[in-house]
Each structure stands twice: as structure tokens, then as C-alpha cells.
Amino acid sequence: MHRLSNPGLSRRDVLAAGAATLAGSAASRDALAQEGVNLDAAGTLEAPSQPFHDTVRLTVNGVIRELRLDTRTTLLDALREHLHLTGTKKGCDHGQCGACTVLVDGVRINACLTLALMHEGDDITTIEGLGTPENLHPMQAAFVRHDGYQCGYCTPGQICSAVAVLKEVDAGIPSHVTHDIAGAPALSDEELRERMSGNICRCGAYSNIIDAITEVAGTRA
Amino acid sequence: MKPFSYERAASPAEAAAAAARRPGARFIAGGTNLLDLMKLQIEVPSHLIDVNGLALDTIEPTPEGGLRVGALVSNTALAADPRVRRDYALLTRALLAGASGQLRNKATTAGNLLQRTRCPYFYDTAQPCNKRRPGSGCAAIGGFTRQLGVIGTSDACIATHPSDMAVALRALDAVVETVQADGATRTIPMADFHRLPGETPHIETALQPGELITAVVLPRPLGGRHIYRKVRDRASYAFALVSVGAVVQPDGTGRVALGGVAHKPWRVEEAETELPRGARAVTERLLAGARPTRDNAFKVTLVERTLGSVLAEARG
Ligand SMILES: Cc1cc2nc3c(=O)[nH]c(=O)nc-3n(C[C@H](O)[C@H](O)[C@H](O)COP(=O)(O)OP(=O)(O)OC[C@H]3O[C@@H](n4cnc5c(N)ncnc54)[C@H](O)[C@@H]3O)c2cc1C
Ligand code: SF4
Ligand code: FES
Ligand code: FES
Fold first, then answer.
1. pTM
2. Residue A169: closest CA among chain B residues belongs to which residue?
3. Is B3–A194 a contact, with Cβ atoms under 8 angstroms apart?
4. More exposed terminus of chain B, fewer Cβ within 10 Å: N or C?
């Protein structure tokens, strides 16, 4: 995504831009005020100034967790700041880098672009849940063997993504580079590179990452 | 993000009614566009209605021989559906050309259609933008416009709709089904769904406030060769500079829609009569009246050449 530099500026302009003008009656205004929504004299909506809280129950790495959270909490922040599972990384916080990739009911997603409250009852797996230092997941072991990282910051996201990629190929989900979308996708380098393109590595460990994934794919076959 | 209250909707009609009742309310589906913009305080809803619990995540055959795609079907599930791969390959190809695997797992059919039509200056809250703040001006006009629109633009806005999926849906003549706040339902053809910017670039679609998309209906399969070609600065995980979606029949007739050139997926049915005469003839009609900038004049040539290669592939 193309983003221009964003010097620290007052947010007031933006708020005004996002405000909706309403022809609210006094009664509806009071009803709304009780819910924390305020209208100014002109009937313009003011963004609520107080945070709202809600509870969510999710299973994280096999353990049921109940959290009371500010509604704004992303799944990523719930994992890192509330459950102290700091393996999952925050890179861009905007869906652009893949460092925050986790598995939700086995499916890979960007934890930064989803609210924790939207995951009531879901089963979340983070890098900590895939394996332990004593008992590595095969994908973790392969990344170590093939030097699939340098600084390691993108690695938890890469590994979670890679585990899910192999499942997606198994399930026959095609990709942008699949030649015949009617048939089963192959496990070529080209396929793996395309499927892993949502995980950016600033250290450029890409070729070793592909080697690691290829090894795991091969040993499973 | 600004504080917001949160509720899970129980039914489509209740979701629409709740949205109309609560000023400043927005639906949230995958969240991949809305949360991105909320973090930058470009979107500042005071209330979110989570529609993920609504049972709108199935793909069913229609009596007319098409498919009804629930609003919450993920981009991955839609692309991978065997019926879509067989009969609407253009749609599968377009979906797979968009975003990343992780994002497609979360992105929904309705959310993809409703991702904001945007430009880099829309993201920069220090800049004037008629879309973000009506009447404030447009920083893109006279600025850096390489990615921006070449046709259907206005003096108020030259942004492009970024969706790949929408280009395919436009070529396939899909129809959007909705429910309104009073419970009434209606259908909107893709041709009328997205709007040109005109004087009101902040209004991007034909939806009324609080109107909920429940499904997108694909008409009966067209047959023919389905090709989606996306030209971008990286081989993967980038928005289109130009994209061409085409369905070409054995006799050389067909349909063409473009992405990356306008405020909406761009299709001109009359231009399709030129298909047997080749890419140049089609492009002349398709982009007649284009007003490119110095930075993006290359898009006109790029459309012609990309269409040329698509037509060659369809013949081959
Ligand atoms: C890094 C990045 C790269 C991307 N690259 C591409 C790309 O190359 N090609 C491409 O096409 N897209 C791309 N996208 C955009 C992506 O496809 C969209 O963000 C996604 O499709 C939005 O779907 P969602 O379900 O997450 O929507 P949400 O963010 O949940 O919602 C988007 C909007 O739709 C509204 N909405 C949602 N559901 C409904 C409903 N049922 N009825 C009425 N309103 C509704 C919401 O209120 C909101 O205004 C990219 C996104 C990111 C972050
Ligand atoms: S082109 Fe449109 S979105 Fe971009 S700055 Fe101008 S008004 Fe805003
Ligand atoms: S931190 Fe989520 S994609 Fe970058
Ligand atoms: S190992 Fe450093 S970013 Fe990938």
C-alpha cells in the first residue's frame, strides 16, 4: 500500500471530517447520551471520549482465556499486551507485513487487522502454541536448519504462515500462479513464493525460507 | 482509534435497523479495510455492528442457474469454490490477484466491494481531500498521480477503486442484494453499484445509510475463456496499475472490464462490439474521453497492450 509520510498533526480536522450531521430530537439525543454518544448543539456527532469495555472468551494455544477489553483492542494487542504472548510480532499494524500472522481455527490471518472481540469462541494458535524449545514444530526445526531468518523479527509470522500454506495447498486452494485452477495446485517454488508474499522479510531470508518450507512439504508427502 | 461501542448483530434485518438507529454506526465484517482506516482516524465510527455471526457465508445455486454468494463468504472460499473455478474462472483469478493469503482469508465479499475508493493523499490526514473532508480540496490533483484515475474523474477527485474482485463482478454482470433499515430488500446491478466521484466523491456507492449487503448473485455462466491480467509494480501483494478482466467467446465476441483506471470498475458495453477488431479499437471506445495526468498517461497505452495480450491468450 502506498502511504505518504504523516507528520504529527492535530487529529481535530479528521474528527470533523468523519462526523455525521444528524437531525436528532432531544429525546433521541438523551437516549444516545446514555450510551455514551454525544451530539453537539448543531446535532453533529461527537466521537465518544470514554472507552467502552466488553468481555471475550477465546482459546489460545489450547487454554481457555476470558478477557475484559477496551473494544478497540486488536487480537494482536490482546495476545501481546494482555496475554503476554510476545512471540507474535507487530511490524506495520496495517496488514502490510505479515509479522502478526496467527492461526484462527487453523486459518492464517493478520492479527493486527481484527478485533479481539470478533473472536468469541475461536481457537487461536500462535508461534508459542506450535512447538516449544524442547519440542519444536517441524516447520520451526526446518527454519533453524535452513537459516530461514537473520534478525528473526518476521519469523513467527513466517512460520505460522508456512504451516497454513501447506494446509491450503493440501485443501486444493489455488493461488495467483496456479496454472490450471480446475486441478490440484503443485508445490513448486513459484507457488510457495506467491503464497508467502504476505510475509515480508527485511533481512531478505526468502530463499532459505522457501528451502525450509520445501523440506517440510517433502517429508510430509 | 477513537472509542466505540460494539454489538454482535442477530439477523440481517436487525443489523440494518441497528445501523439506522445508531448515528455513527458501521458494520464490520473482515475488518481489513475498516480497522486500517480507523487506526489512522480516517474512519471514526462511534459504534460497530459485527455482522460475522449472521449466517451469510454460503454459496448456493439460484433457480436461474447462477450462484448466490453470501456477503460473508471469504475471498479465499469464493476463489476456491469448485463451481466458481469451473464456471466463473474470471472471478477466481481476480480474487487470487488481490492482497495476500492472510488478507483473503479474512476479507469478505461485501467488505471487498465496499473497501474505500482511495489514493495516497486520502491516507495522509495532513492533506486536503474531498473524500475524507468534503469541500477541503484534492491534494492529488497536481500532486503525485501515477496510480490514480484516467477516466470518469472529476475536478473534485481522481482516486481509483482498488478492488480486483469488483472488476470481475462487473464483467460478469453480478447483482448485489441488500436489506434496508425498514426490512425492505432490493437488488442493485454492479453497473449501478459504485459511483463516479462528480462533486460528491465521499459518496462511493448506491447504498443508503444502514443498508446491509446480504449477497452477491452471479447470473448463469457465460462460457468462453476467462482471463484476468493485473499489471503492478511487484509480482504479488500490490494494487493494480491497470487490470483487465475479460470473457472471450470462440467467435471473438466477449466482455471487458478494467481496474486501476477509474473511481469504479470500468466497463463500456458499446466498446465490446469492437472486440473482433482488436485491442486498439476496443481501447479507443473504452477510454474515449480519458483525462490522464502527465504521471499516468502511460495507463492508456498499458490498457491497450494488456488487452492485446489478453486477447492473444484467449485466441491461443
Ligand atoms: C495490505 C493490503 C493490501 C491489499 N491489496 C489488495 C489488492 O491487491 N486487491 C484488492 O482487491 N484488495 C486489496 N486489499 C483490500 C482488501 O481486499 C479489503 O480490505 C477487503 O476486501 C475488505 O473486506 P473486509 O471484509 O475486511 O471489509 P471490512 O473492513 O470489514 O469492511 C469494509 C467496509 O464495508 C462495510 N461492510 C462490510 N460488510 C458489509 C455488509 N455486509 N453490508 C454493508 N456494508 C458492509 C464496512 O462497514 C466497511 O465500511 C488490500 C488490503 C490490504 C490491507
Ligand atoms: S483523489 Fe480523491 S481521495 Fe485522493 S486526495 Fe483527491 S479527493 Fe481525496
Ligand atoms: S503487523 Fe499485522 S501485517 Fe504487519
Ligand atoms: S529475519 Fe529479519 S525481517 Fe525476516
1. 0.93
2. B80
3. no
4. C
